[in-house]
Amino acid sequence: MTTPLSVSRVEDAAVWDAALMRLPDPQILQSWAWGETKAQTGWAARRLLWQRDGLPVAAASMLVRRVAGGVPLAVAYIPRGPVLDWSDAALAQTILAQLEDEARKARALFVKMDPAVRADAEEGRSLTDLLNRRGWVVSPDQIQYRNTVISDLTPDEDTLLAAMKPKWRYNIRLAERKGVIVRSGSAVDLPAFYAMYLETGERDGFLVRPYEYYQTVWERFLRDGLAHVLLAEVDERPIAGIVLFKYGPTAWYFYGASTDQARDFMPNHALQWTAMQWAKEVGCTRYDWWGAPDDLVESDPTWGVYRFKMGFGGEFVPGIGAWDYPTFGPAYTAYTRAMPRLLDILRRRHRVSAPGDGA
């Protein structure tokens, strides 16, 4: 006879992160630190842990935010979660039912989730079928990237280099010949990195949040040992940089920035190769490039970035995307019709960022 599940709210950071580390594919956006940093934009984390015989079997950090205007309702979001073994159909059914109930308790119009589940795997096909049967709908608001590119870091460095496109290997060597030096950064370097990030957003057409938002996230993750800054310099002048996140066996390339200076020195190739080497050194087995086109066509605005990522030998990984469970049907419909207009106004006023910054 199977021991029944127990579910509890976790209020301790060490307990939460330790439990996630014992689950399959722990996600950085489900970490304790991510939930804490989202408080600055009005989200409160409800961390639910399911156990059997004292061992964790599932976890969900549900972010809840009240609807503006004094309405006694909220919205809920489980970024890149919940985390569990999705091949266990009975477990998946139980967790979804309890998350739906938790959303109702929070008086949420809906709960959104976008778990890290491959759409082309049996788990993905089974999960989408289960979601449809339980009344979940494909979300009109895909906050995170649905698809990504992942590099397997388990081979040795020579094998990783051999898997890259020849031009990419050439550009890595070219950067070295041109005098590009890649160094690790710290919190002291964050203002300089943000200046480059802002320049990148203006050049490439994506919106950037105010510095204070990124400062809170970056400093917290650096302090907790969950982030790493790399800067590419020429003559001790930064010309490009990246901020990596690390959690469990995975490193994520979340933020990249560059200036218009010395771009022909290929600093971004040098940065990414150094990032892969660093991730491998600290024990990561996967490098998640965080984002790929929804449709693999050259007309997609992210096609150029996708080609850059794939040149390093990664694998395109399709995800199931974000799904919503409406707890108040008519109100959910009204909300989803109004939100695109409201978000457009907010982006014009406050320079809200593109997908990749989480909730």
What would you say this structure looks like, in words?
- The protein has 359 residues and is of the alpha+beta class.
- Helix content is 38%, strand content 24%.
- It is built from 11 helices and 15 strands.
- Strands 1, 2, 3, 4, 5, 6, 7 and 15 form an 8-stranded mixed beta sheet that branches. A 7-stranded mixed beta sheet has the order 9-10-11-12-13-8-14, with helices on both faces.
- It is globular and about 60 Å long.
Q: DSSP strand (E) fraction?
A: 15-25%
Uncertain residue ranges: 349-356
What's the helix count?
A: 11
Structural class: alpha+beta
- Overall residue-averaged pLDDT value: 93
Rg, rounded, reads 21 Å
State the oligomer. Answer: single chain
Can you write the helix and strand succession as a string?
A: EHHEEEEHEHEEHHEHHEEEHEHEEH
Number of E-state strands: 15
Query: Helical proportion?
Result: 25-40%
Largest sheet: 8 strands, mixed
Report, as a whole number of angstroms, the end-to-end distance.
40 Å
Shape: globular
